[in-house]
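PROTOCOL LOG
Step 1. Enter all chains and additional molecules of the complex.
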Amino acid sequence: MANTAEQPYDVEAIRADFPILHQETRPGVPLVYLDNAASSQKPRQVIEVLDDYYRRYNANVHRGIHKLSEEATAAYEGARVKIKRFINAASKREIIFTRGTTESINLVAQTWGRANLKAGDAVLTTVMEHHSNIVPWQMLAAEKGFTIRYAPLRDDGTLDMDAFRQMLGEGAVKLVAVMHVSNVLGTINPVAEIVRLAHEAGALALVDGAQSIPNMPVDVQQLDADFYAFSGHKMIGPTGIGVLYGKRDLLETMPPWMGGGDMISRVRLDGSTWNELPYKFEAGTPSIAQAVGLGAAVDYLSAVGLDRIQAYEKRLIEYALERLAEVPQLRVYGPHADQKGAVAAFTFANIHPHDLAQMLDVEGIAIRAGHHCAMPLHDYLGIGASARASFYLYNTFSEVDVLIEALYKARKAFSI
Amino acid sequence: MYDMYRENILDHAQNPRHPGILSPADVDHEEHNPLCGDRLRLTLRLDEQNRIKEIAWDGEGCAISQATASMLAEEILGKTVDEVRQITRDEVLELLGIPLTINRLKCALLSLKTLTIGLYGLKEWQKHDDEDDE
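Step 2. Run joint prediction.
Step 3. Record the structure below.
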């Protein structure tokens, strides 16, 4: 087992805040939760905020002239300001609440994309993308007739920047849409450089931050991204809430997407005008409790420190990769630890990842098996599916050991 | 309890100062408060020094929005547009002199919004807008 002394923080103190981690999946078998790239667990500080909202001040926001509505509005808008500071946006009006990363990217496709992309144009993305950053563009391309270019990878699982530059140089690219951190390979893409190259080519840049925001400090102004999308539930917040960050000048020019209450300025029977930012893009009653819960999640992560979380996870993934390398016939995909988030996707001899996940579940270990919403990437790697262990701030070095032991057990069971 | 409806606020709301519409006007601008339906049209005439020499407004809405418009109209008459540009959100709220909850702020600030956008455009208003970010 690794020396866990002098870690960036006391992981046991963190674990004490997450009630769900302290359970046995069956008698004598403690839960080892390693499916954090799919969804993270929630600390009591977030759970209590949700509970408090529903017990004490549940009401609709923005309209009510009564105490509960005033309190709900203050909390909902307060969460927006917390997120604005968390990612260093220039204005709280650049923070649009959505259901999550997928909805955020669809919003850009359906508003900016629908208004600006046409036949002859191109969207440049990569083969490593999550389906949420591929399918919205394919759907719109089928309608508008623009093309989609997919930048390939190098053998080590990093983005082939020479090919990327070349594809950008072929012209007609109006939008570059890339993930910040791969949910399978763990690859940390050089997004600041990608954004700069996109702008030089006259294109806008959208970054899928679903796997970066929970695990590392992100400054949207420093990155100069035009759009940045992320989800609450992967960053110890509730499901049903996410964010689209967009540069204000750009958002101002974009038409609304969904129509309804809260997004209008004037409604007449012969037509309507739109509310100001960010409400133009927040039709209908929003996920109020979830937004307030996301604000509490941001407070929690900020108190621990994203730089310290990143440093801790780096040590953890280094250790996990080292231990996984010991296991015969196990192959991990993606770059070395220094270019990688805390994700290890692997295949193990001829054991199908679903069977492997099932066997690990018996040992109390939660991993994910399948294509992880990245089928093109798995095609590209020439594999049907992979098993994936993904770590977060509350995982421990001894949990890595439990995983390795269970892999040896599975190996024995399959007589390999 | 009825602090929000003190005598001077109700007086301004029920007997608005400078009612009407100037035509022609140097500035003629209308804004709405989408969440409660308040409406305000503000018309101004300026002298050679860009001083507000005449003001008239027309609107409908709650007592807070109408009283603030009336108070602000009195406040800016005779001021130059540069002086008007310096007026902050907090100064307008001080005219009212009562604490407001978050959902009523938009009512109280509709007149400043109409004035600012009418004189200097949306960008200028966005500066005021961000004052409560921190």
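Step 4. Note key features.
Chain B touches chain A through 13 residues (CB under 8 Å).
Residues 41 and 52 of chain B are 16 Å apart (CA to CA).
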